[in-house]
Amino acid sequence: MSNFLTSTNHNPNKSIEVNQPPTDSVSSLSFSPKANFLVATSWDNQVRCWEVARNGVNVGTVPKASISHDHPVLCSTWKDDGTTVFSGGCDKQVKMYWDTRQPNPVHTQQLPERCYAMTVKHPLMVVGTADRNLIVYNLQNPQAEFKRIVSPLKYQTRCLAAFPDQQGFLVGSIEGRVGVHHLDDSQQGKNFTFKCHREGNEIYSVNSLNFHPIHHTFATAGSDGAFNFWDKDSKQRLKAMLRCNQPIPCSTFNNDGSIFAYSVCYDWSKGAENYNPATAKTYIFLHLPQESEVKGKPRIGATGRK
């Protein structure tokens, strides 16, 4: 039996616990691009916001606001000026913290299949749909598909993250694997995939991919209850963190990469029959990454002059 199933430690990495977490599983986490305000959406129909105050290694969290949807909330994101939060969910509504007075969307894009994941790093947008389609858009001309790619991974797309330089993207699947894909045809030789979030014969979903805003390394989080930091350029894992006793369904860096937020809770991947309300508690944690965990390293075996 794996340690994951027998472990009782929900916080083996001694992370900072966020006060007053949601009462059901967390579906998304997003930090304001301008300040340390963290938003979480949840299956309890709520969107919550906390202010994160940091003084050295001392971190405090204060609940600041919440809004309700009629059904579970699945995703959230901030406007780039940090003034507005958008959230969407099972009630087929997108909500904001303020009234735009504009009922019609600026643009609607028809997709070939159901949307499972999306990432935006303006002007690059990548949408992952069913049937392993990855559709790339240039948001300066959103009416036309820029490129359509079949996922380099054999199984269903779970998460996406655009490169900070907009030259490509990461894709994670339910099969414990990540693909690194460049958009330029001349860079295809740099594409590769790697396995992660596996323990022996147990294979877990990669649920979240987050680039560090300064070092441009990235984090993966999975249903095995672990999060790891990676460097795609040197193809190395920088740090493997200890596994929590429940899955990690979502995670995010703050705007300067000094705080990594992640949730620990049931992710519903094993269905309602494996949900045990007595043991399935919901947590949101804050990890303060050390530079050695998130700063890229030279490729192993590479030679160079100082």
From TrEMBL:
<protein>
    <submittedName>
        <fullName>Poly(A)+ RNA export protein rae1</fullName>
    </submittedName>
</protein>
<dbReference type="InterPro" id="IPR015943">
    <property type="entry name" value="WD40/YVTN_repeat-like_dom_sf"/>
</dbReference>
<feature type="region of interest" description="Disordered">
    <location>
        <begin position="1"/>
        <end position="27"/>
    </location>
</feature>
<feature type="repeat" description="WD">
    <location>
        <begin position="19"/>
        <end position="52"/>
    </location>
</feature>
<feature type="repeat" description="WD">
    <location>
        <begin position="206"/>
        <end position="240"/>
    </location>
</feature>
<dbReference type="Pfam" id="PF00400">
    <property type="entry name" value="WD40"/>
</dbReference>
<dbReference type="InterPro" id="IPR036322">
    <property type="entry name" value="WD40_repeat_dom_sf"/>
</dbReference>
<dbReference type="InterPro" id="IPR001680">
    <property type="entry name" value="WD40_rpt"/>
</dbReference>
<keyword id="KW-0677">Repeat</keyword>
<keyword id="KW-0853">WD repeat</keyword>
